[in-house]
Amino acid sequence: MGQPAPQVDPVSVEKPVSGLSALRSGRVWLQIAIFFFYTGIEVSAGQWSYTVLTEERGLGGPVAGTWVTAYWGGLLAGRLVLGFVVERVGQVRLLRLATTGVVIFAALFAIPGQPWGAAALPLLSFSLASIYPGLMAETPRRVGEKTAPHAVGFQVSAATAGVAGVPSVAGLVSERLGLAAIGPVIACCALVLLLLHERLVAIADQTA
């Protein structure tokens, strides 16, 4: 006779986490919101900065174009440097430094009527560079291994919505208040990003 089949304790069998269950997690919603504002800031600054610099701040086209190129270059440089920095600083600390930098440089860019605010653009993108990959890397630890696949899907969807939503809102605001309002819109989104991430740190990292 063969060996009897091993008995499985039904209590020890964990049920898979569904998408709806994942959405009951406040941590998941915080990450969704963070990804929305992150991509919204990144794309808004990239799309609107040339128009702001030329039409609202009086910079010539070639000069403004150079600063916009520097903005996208800062994003690339930040991603290249990320691998060398994260092991020394730590993922969470790097994310907190990055979100703080985003607020500072977005605020500098937002100062109306100042052409030198263009110099904040590459520093803004350099600060943004580590946020997306850093948040993705931290997702399993913050929301749990079983919830992470659903959370990542929601985060990517939120990032896509941010690409479309925040630049559109900035454009609508500029139609009513002028191009000078675009910088403050980006700065306000940066502040929201910082506050959301600090809240996530408070409830996820300190209880991990």
Overview of the molecule:
- 76% of the residues lie in helices and 0% in strands.
- The chain has 208 residues and is mainly α.
- The chain has one domain: Up-down Bundle (Growth Hormone, Chain: A).
- α2 packs antiparallel against α6 and α4 packs across α6.
- The longest helix has 31 residues.
- The protein is globular.
- 39% of the residues are buried.
Descriptors:
single chain, 208 residues, mainly alpha, Growth Hormone, Chain: A, globular
Task: Tell me the helix content.
Answer: over 70%
Shape: globular
Radius of gyration: 21 Å
CATH-level-4 superfamily name: MFS general substrate transporter like domains
The helix/strand order is HHHHHHHH
Low-confidence stretches: 8-13
| Biggest sheet architecture | none
How many distinct domains?
1
The CATH C-level name is Mainly Alpha
- Which structural class do the helices and strands define? mainly alpha
Mean pLDDT: 88
For this structure, the CATH topology is Growth Hormone, Chain: A
Strand element count: 0
Architecture, according to CATH? Up-down Bundle
